[in-house]
Write a structure and sequence with these properties.
This protein is of the alpha/beta class and about 400 residues long. The chain is built from 14 helices and 16 strands. The chain has two domains: about 90 residues, Urease, subunit C, domain 1; about 290 residues, TIM Barrel. Helix 8 links the parallel strand 12 and strand 13.
Length: about 400
């Protein structure tokens, strides 16, 4: 709805942000933007959603919709290199139509699970049109790897959707290519995404220039003889390349340590974690507690349906809450909302329900009696199919 008429949305609870909650509250919306927020009675055109909670749409800051068609087709066995090889084989054998159909189903799943902002990583470049026709906001990252810089590295903007660039990873992309790609996004003040410290194969390759990944690269005809190897660590390597800043999103950090966290925090880098995928592919989880102690701003991604069972950020929050019971629910909610919006460059429009931001929220049918009970319920439940996403 883009009418100038003010519409008031009521609910038993309003999650303004992870740390600000209003009981029996309302949100006034005019011309697609949030106006006033309050508590108690209100007048005019009212939509009463029920006794549950209205909260900001969730942010899935790292997903691969072009891989949705490969769900349940790639086994998590015989190591990461084997999984990657099988994934590439299946992806290359699938038709563009099959992959696009899978992406459409993925978009539907995202919306039904309360997501309104995404960071889509596209290696083949086939999902831009699909996403641009949806109601989702966010960043579409065209991902590059290898030694060659493709001609099509353009950046663009369409309403609440941005086209930017991702470097796949420091173990799959030549260092000069990483620098060049980062410079393109830096000149346009756009976010830049890169997988980092994800696998043991990556660590071995970067620290020795040898191992299973070196063999894999050679088999694929990628020459890494001038890649400045070996290096101290993937994170230190990117710092030395000069690509770490507030607009950089470091994804995974499964094998990163305290000294790496200090580097990332110093450069104000956003960190995107996909713990369910990490558990499936590597049987390991990132050190989230140490990351938080280091002051890192953590956001969440689902990764692809080739490595997880769903694209739901509610599922991601529940997994973290179960695996890291010491992390407070409000911190987990921040990962799924305001931190993700910040990482993707949309903090002025999404992430919290404050005046002037876009009216983009999700209703979840919880029935609770206290704030703490509400927070616990939000980060420990799967609301797929029962939540209602409102994007105006």
């Amino acid at each position: 709805m883009n009418s100038t008429e003010t519409v008031t949305h009521k609910a038993g609870w309003i999650i303004v942000d992870p740390y600000t909650i209003i009981r029996d509250g309302y949100i006034g919306v005019e011309s697609g933007l949030i106006g006033d927020i309050g508590r108690g009675s209100c007048s005019g055109h009212i939509i009463d959603h029920g006794p549950g909670a209205l909260l900001p749409v969730l942010v899935n800051a790292h997903t691969h919709l072009e891989l949705c068609a490969l769900k349940d087709k790639v086994k998590y066995e015989n190591g990461f290199k084997s999984w990657v090889e099988k994934l590439i084989e299946l992806r290359n054998s699938a038709s563009p139509e099959t992959l696009k159909t899978g992406a459409l189903k993925g978009l539907k799943e995202l919306t039904e699970s309360g997501c309104g902002v995404i960071g889509e990583i596209s290696t083949l470049g086939i999902t831009w049109e699909t996403i641009s026709k949806s109601n989702l906001a966010g960043v579409w990252f065209r991902e590059f790897l290898g030694n060659v810089l493709p001609v099509d590295n353009t950046c663009d903007r369409k309403d609440f959707l941005v086209k930017s660039i991702a470097a796949h990873a420091p173990h799959t992309l030549a260092p000069n290519r990483i620098i060049e790609l980062k410079d393109i996004t830096r000149k346009r003040n756009l976010p830049f995404s890169i997988h980092l410290s994800e696998s043991e194969d990556e660590i071995e390759f970067l620290q020795t220039g040898k191992g299973k990944w070196a063999d894999f690269m050679t088999e694929r005809g990628i020459d890494f003889s001038n890649w400045r190897l070996p290096v101290e660590s993937p994170v230190k390597y990117l710092e030395d390349l000069g690509v770490l800043d507030k607009k950089t999103i470091a994804v995974h950090l499964l094998h990163a340590e305290e000294k790496d966290f200090e580097i990332l925090s110093r450069h104000d880098v956003s960190v995107c974690l996909c713990p369910r995928s990490n558990k499936n592919l590597h049987n390991r989880l990132p050190d989230i507690e140490e990351m938080l102690q280091s002051g890192l701003k953590i956001c969440l991604g689902s990764d692809s349906l080739a490595s997880v069972e769903s694209l739901s950020i509610f599922n991601e929050m529940a997994f973290i809450s179960n695996a890291f019971p010491s992390i407070p629910p409000d911190e987990i909610l921040a990962m799924a909302t305001v931190n993700g919006a910040r990482a993707l460059g949309f903090e002025d429009m999404f992430g919290s329900l404050t005046p002037g931001k876009r009216a983009a929220f999700v209703y979840v049918p919880v029935e609770v009696s206290s704030r703490s009970e509400l927070q616990h319920a939000l980060v420990n439940a799967d609301f797929k199919g029962s939540c209602k996403t409102v994007l105006q």
